[in-house]
Each structure stands twice: as structure tokens, then as C-alpha cells.
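HOLO CASE FILE
Compound: 5'-O-[(L-methionyl)-sulphamoyl]adenosine
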Amino acid sequence: MRNKFYITTPLYYVNASPHIGHSYTTIAADTLSRYMRHVLGDKNVWFLTGSDEHGQKIQRAADEAKLSPQDFADKMSLQFKELWKELDISYNDFIRTTEIRHIKTVQKVLDILHKKGDIYEGKYEGLYCTPCETFWLESQVSDNLCPDCKRKLERISENNYFLNLEKHQAWLLQYIKDNPSFIKPESRRNEVLSFLLLNKLEPLCISRPKERLSWGIPLPFSPDYVTYVWFDALINYISAVGSFDEDNKYISKWWPADLHLIGKDILRQHAVYWPIILHALGGIEQPKTIFAHGWWLINSDKMSKSRGNVVSPLDMVNKFGLDVYRYFILRDVPFGLDGNFSEEAIIKRFNGDLANDLGNLIYRTLTMIEKYYTGNVPELDIFNIKLDNSGEKIKQAINDLGIYPLLNLNFDFSLALEKIWELINMANKYVEETKPWNLAKENRIEELKSFIRLLVEVIRKVAGEIYPFMPETSKSIIQQIGEDKIKKGKPLFPRIDTSKPVT
Ligand code: MSP
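Model generated. C-alpha cells follow.
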């Protein structure tokens, strides 16, 4: 299919409730999907999200909850679905790794790679972190602790199945060099390139013996093993949108993915393992772009259950409103970098950008239309008449403003919003400069009319541009400034009084 956009989020682990980090990737994907639907039409965008339900983490959390892993996963994946509903996430499909369509595809992939010899049986001896399900080399470890979670490592020796990564290393290196848009941003691309240049890729252990972990997809060629959760999960990107035919050819209307949106923590799996799996399968196209964004931190620290600093997106939405939350997380930090999350930072954006800038522009414009024109939007084609200097500049800015290519090329949400706010601020300044109350007093009717009409054009433009970021606010602005009549409501963003606690 041409002219399509297939975008994915990671599949979130269902071992714990969703937090702001999960909502970040999903809101970014939602914003891009809405924007692409605007550009390409509804039918040409496919937005996939879902849940990652196998493996040790889930097994352990299910044990603690005294539920079977399947019942536990059912319950938890519902929490994610409910959250996405609250956050107005416009996904097209939600895949769970415990669904048959997924399991069948994973087993097919395993079979193909096993028959080709890319997956082979071998012995593993070394260090293993059970909670992280990760094997570590002696050289990577000091003091016998997991470099990731700092828990004690176990020494194990067992037969397992491995994917030969090294065989494809030279190909991958060249592929990344030849395709500058494959990994973004640039800093992450360089990170993967230097990793591939400096290290020999070790075989990836893709199985776990059932006696140690039974909660996984059984290997089709060896009944005593289940599939390693990462090998299983990555395949969702193809299992959700297609299938293999009798000749083992993968058929899909949507593949290749145009964008895998991920956090920086899972770059290696997406930019090394996943391309190699696809390449080893033979003839399956690579995703067009893998974009790794940064992390939300709390006081520069990782969010974690044990630190007790996990922030729930629903709490933020209940406190500040959905669009405020969506705006904040896409505006406050350039996409790709880490940011510090705090309620103070949200309030600052709220009172500044939303109440003072956007809210004020709308409210004062509506008030003037009410006062000077009894609520009727003055009719005038300001693009066909000459305005004063500042007015002409604003007209130009309206015509120039287009977040669309900007977002498309760089995924720079923050910059896109900044550009929209430049227009809002120009308009607010224009009000202060022009002093419309004097125009009214002095009976300069034509000037007043073109002035107000220009503000209306700015607001309509802004409403359209912010739609992908703040869908409800956009609709409500368009409702308030109707085609010919206004419908003034309460101020959209009443200032938050910082001297009182926010409830
Ligand atoms: N299940 C795997 C992904 C498999 S994809 C085939 C996984 N799941 S996860 O639930 O741990 O989280 C995945 C994603 O959540 C991260 O890659 C990132 O996109 C997002 N975030 C989790 N914590 C985050 C922050 N603190 N900040 C920003 N995003 C983070 O890994």
C-alpha cells in the first residue's frame, strides 16, 4: 500500500500499572497519528499499541497477586486499555502477546529461522539475572551484581537455543550507515553504530527451559522450552498486521512500519535484534524509522516502585485536565532528551502558555466580538486588503505556519508547539499595540473590523494546528468562534492560583 503510515508504540509490560513514562510514548504516537490522518486521510494510518504479557516479570507479579499469569495479564492489560481511553488515544489495534494471531506468527518465525540454521541449540554457561531475564558476560559484571537492577546474579549452565547475531553484524552496520533515517535521533544512531563497531555480537539466547520458566510461547521444535520474552514481543509488529503464506513469504498491507516509537531504554532490542530477525527471515523489509525518545525523571531520578515516586497519568489528568497534560509532556522537553517531571513545571506551563497566552487571546477576542459586534463575527477577507505593518506580519505568519512538515521530518513536537505559540504571542502583542478600545472610541470602524478579523484568523489557524496535540481544546475553540456567531464559554484555562494547593 502506498501513501500509508504505520506507527507503533512498544508493547507495555503488564507487571505493573501504567505510569507517565508509558503515557509519553503513547501520547506522542497518538499526536503523530492524528496529524498523519490529517495529511493522508483516515484510512491510510495504522496506529498499533498493545501489551507484552509473557516472561518472568509477569509470572512473578501474577504469583504475588495469587492469580494465574493469564488472569493477571487479562486484568492488567485492561488497565492499559482503560487509560488509553481516558487519554483519548486513537489507536487502531491493540495487540496482546497472548493472542493466537501473535503466538502463531512467533512460532512460524521460530520454525523458519530454525530450519535455516540461524537458530541453533547450544550450551550456555555464565551469569544470569532472573528478574531481568538477562545473561551477562563476566567482563560486563563486577561484584556479581546485575549491571541493570543491581540484584544478585546466578551462575547457570544449561542447554538453550540461540540466534546467531554475528552472522548479520556486518550487514547491519552497513545498513545503518546507508540509511540515515533508520535510527533517530542522530545521537542514538551514533550510539548504535559505535556499539556495532566496537563489539562482536554474542549469540542471543532466545529460549528458556520450561522447568525454570513456563510462562511463554512454546518452541515449536522443542517442547521443553519457551521463547525468550523479547524475541516473542518484537514480532508483534508483524504479527498484528500480516501473516506468512505457504511459501513462508510474509504478506501485509501495512508493513514495513513507518515509525517504531520507543524509549531510549529499549534501543538495542529495536535497532540490533529486530533488524537482524527481519533480515534473517529473508526478504522482509526493514522498518523505515526507529525513534528513541528520552526519559521522564523525578528529581533527576528514575521512577520506580521501590523509590515510591511513580506518577500516575490519571492523577495528572484529574488535576490539570487531559489536554493540559498532553500539551505539557510534548512541549516541556525536546523529543529525544530526558526531562524532569513535576507538578510545578505543569503549573508554570499552564499559567504561562495556556492561561496567559492562548486562553487570553481567545477570551479577549471573544469579549471584543461580543462588545463591538453583538457576538457576530465580522465578515471581511483580510487576506485581500492591506493592513498596517504588524498586521501584515501576522498575515504572513499565518500563511507560513505549518507544523506538518516540521513534525514529519524531525518529530520535534516541542518546536512545533513553540512555532504555534510564536503566532499566538504576536497576536497578543498586536492587541496591546493597537489598543482596540481607542479605535472604538474614535469610531475607526474599518480598522477595528480588520483588526478583530485578523485575530479571528489567527485563532482559527491555531485551533487547527493544535488539534493533534490537544484535540478537545481545538474543537472547543472552533465551537466558540463559529462561522458567523460566537459562543463564548468560560475561559478555557483559568489561571491556577499557586498560593493555594492544587486539588
Ligand atoms: N515490554 C517491553 C517493550 C517491548 S516492545 C516489543 C518494555 N515495556 S515497558 O513497559 O517496560 O516500557 C516500555 C516503554 O515505556 C519504554 O521504552 C518507553 O517508551 C516507556 N517508558 C517507560 N518508562 C519511561 C520513563 N520514565 N520515561 C519515558 N518513557 C518511559 O520495555
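CASE NOTES: DSSP finds 18 helices and 17 strands in the chain. The chain has a mean pLDDT of 94.
CLOSED: yes
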